[in-house]
Amino acid sequence: MNATEVTPAMDSGLDEGAIPDFVDGEPTDVRRWLELVINRRRLSPAHRRVARYLLDHPEQAAALTAEDLGKRSGVSQASVTRFAMELGFRGYPEMRAELGNQIAAQAKSGPNGLVGNVLGRTVAKDVANIEALVSSPWAGQRLDRVGRNLAGSQPLPVMGLRISRPFADLFAYFAAKVHPDVRVVPAGSDGDDVLAVAAKAGATWMLAFGLPRYPRALLDSIRYARSLGLRVALVTDSPLCPLAHDVDDLLAAPVNSELTFDSCTAPLALTMGLLQAITEALPDHGQARLEEFDQRAEERCLFID
Q: What CA–CA distance (Å, rounded) separates 248 from 119?
């Protein structure tokens, strides 16, 4: 097993400068299209702010002038224009027109008769986010690659802070049933100690969960892990998140930010998919550990049948 298999986190196989489109009749997702357009480009901080606003508010952005979009993003009008040209458009008007076309296509191909209450809207958005993972360049085959790399790291440190802590705990709970040595990393200097011991024990990768809002302490731990020689795989909501350029590989699933508190259904689905990829990368050892656990559980009557 190759424990160091990795390709650049921003590589999806698209030609640089190409503006992707969807074939006639294929359901269109605006955020998916935007991610494909932005993919593989090393954006400046100002351009990343524009991209983040577009991904978070595509419908509103389609109605804004370059000046208004700049104000919403906290950048200049000139930065918005340069951003559009960086993506391969002749200028901002062409980019805005294409964004409008994508929104219209999504409205035409999207589900009809959605329930008008809060739960109906939440479910519809979460379902769309999950479906987008199937063809996302930040999941798919990338998921298998990350799973193989993490399976080959023994021990495997796992970290998540604040809203991401439950994801790290859930992942570690299940991963420990198939992986021989999973270690949850706490925050601060205690976490640094765990990382240093793991690196000395032979760890090659750390898995970090970083959903919005992104804790500064997590970025500090990521950078410390890399200073120890560890590679870092990140599970997050967007390839444009502020942690992206400090990791070696990245998986992304959008959150539903239309609620007071983000719905993280798609990131949870991505996490469970990653667990499956790790299990499949450890076919013999993982299965043996699962069988041992089932036997112990039966002997101790742990569960009510």
A: 37
Reported as a single tens digit per residue, the pLDDT across 124-182 is 787 888 888 888 888 887 899 999 999 999 999 999 999 999 999 999 999 998 898 99
Beta bridge mates, 206:
232
Task: Please report, as a single letter, which amino acid is at residue 126.
Answer: D
CA dihedral 58, 64, 70, 71 (to 10 degrees): -110
6 assigned to some structural domain: no
pTM beyond 0.85: the answer is no
Q: Is 301 exposed, middle or buried (0-12, 13-18, 19+ CB in 10 A)?
A: exposed
Structural domain containing residue 89: 30-109
| Token representation of residue 104 | 């219209």
To the nearest 5 percent, what fractions of the chain are helix, strand and coil? 55, 10, 35
CATH number at residue 264: 3.40.50.10490
